[in-house]
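Thread: quick sanity check before group meeting

JM: Hey all, I'm pulling together slides for Thursday and realized we never actually wrote out the predicted structure for the chain we discussed last week. Dropping the sequence here so it's in one place. If anyone has concerns about the input, flag it before I start.
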Amino acid sequence: MSRVLQISGISVHTVKGSNHIVITGFMASGKTSVARALAPRLNMSMIDLDEVVFQRAQRSIAEIIAQYGEEYFRLLETSVLEQTLGDKNPNVVALGGGTWVENRNCKLITLRGCTTVWLDVPFELCWQRIKEAGPGARPLARNYHQTFKLYVERQPAYAQAMIRIGGDHHKTASELANEIAERYKDDR
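JM (edit): ok, ran it. Output follows.
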């Protein structure tokens, strides 16, 4: 079975049944925690894309952006994503908050036939987690209004994911992982 997505006005056919599950959503939505909980349920490995970028660059994302700029970071992120999706073993991949929003990444993920999951969490919960992480932990979250604007701007891109899972203050990463696992198995 295939699915057609509209990406920047271009119809892209996806092929159902890829090994990889890719989790997208806004920064601090819980993608990494949910991916960690989901991977063992599906007997897959878990990859945190931001962590792989950090390992490759030997710098934090904040340091990369400060030193080289966001565009350089996005190009590095795409390179790491391409390498990750080339793995023949099934993986649950936690994307960075802006990864899916980049057209080249969205197309790559789609063309590789990955199952995409949007972890849709209210902005206020994301903002609370961003503040708890401390200043500088999220370099694109400079202040409340700028971060909220980014959240709103990214929603249409996130909504293109195949599966939408709603999160809130009451759902644990384990509960969200169970929901994703059920939906994933139902769709196969």
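AS: nice. Residues 53 and 77 are 6 Å apart (CA to CA). Helices lie at 31-41, 49-57, 61-68, 70-85, 103-111, 123-133, 144-158, 173-187.
JM: adding both to the slides.
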